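Feature request, filed as a ticket because there's no other form

It would be nice if the structure record came with a short human-readable summary line next to the tokens. Right now we just get the raw output. Example of a typical job, pasted below so the devs can see what we mean:
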Amino acid sequence: MLTINSLIDAQVTFMQQWLRKQAEPLSMEAWQWFGAQPLDKYISSDDLQRLLNDWLLDHPLSEVMRADIRDILHSIIYHPANDNVPLSELIDDTQVETLANYVGSHEQQRNILIHTLVGNDTFADLLTQTLYHAINDFMENTLEKAGGVGKLMKLGRSSFEKATNRNLDEKLQTYLHRNIKDLAHRAEANAQEHLSNEEVSRLLVTGWARIKEQPINHLQTYLRDEPNNSSIDHIEASIQQSYNRLRISPYLHSLVAASVDTWYRNHQSDTIAQVAESLHINEAAMMQLSTTLMPIINDAFESEWLTAHLREMLQAFYSQPNIKDSLSFSNQ
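Raw output as currently delivered:
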């Protein structure tokens, strides 16, 4: 005689077999249904804000993630492929030309750059000190080797300092600083006058042409890869420090909120499928994903936890008084 327990066992087996056969079409039908739903039916702007804040900004990078970042950076930077691939593989000539023309066409920014490089006081001070040390070193070495003439020159220097009540070194530095600053300002004015937009663009393009055929691994010369002095460790630590500072910054939170609100206003009337399509997730992609996940789905159907839940659900169904009383099954 058929018992409730044997019926439940048969139903559980049937449901598992049926689900295995129907898993692929069911997954696609589920996606079609889900994709047709409007975004604002299930997700609000506040939901997205909480997701970003609770899942991303409220937590520092984990040690596992930091280690992964370091390892991935090391693998990319020191990959053997970098030995034979030129820099031009990363950046196209037209990109450099576009950037050069853009920089060259902004006269105000160009003049600020020239002033920063040539016309600022720091540059003049640095050049003054460099020339002073060179002249002073030359004079000291010359006087030491000049014998009597050197002694005469030293005497003349001493007499000058007594007569003017000023140190010759100080006088020399003042003279150099005054004249070099004037020369730097003249050089800046000449550069701003004669360095045309075309010249700026040409300099950038010419500079790129000189380095573009160098292999990518040339960048490694600017890095250290030593156990206790790794550039990658410093880069990762800097990323971590910047992220930790920014993620608790009210400034970043306000920008994130504004970005989410803007995005949501643009897409709240879209269906979920339309939003997914903007990320290149379409029905073909979902079908490929479904095929890839099918072994996991089949294992889930065969798992003990699903079998137990199916049996528990059916037992609860048959235990209902109206069902139990209307059936003439044996309780064994």
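Something like this underneath would help us a lot:
Residues 4-35 form the longest helix (32 residues).
Residues 93-214 form one domain.
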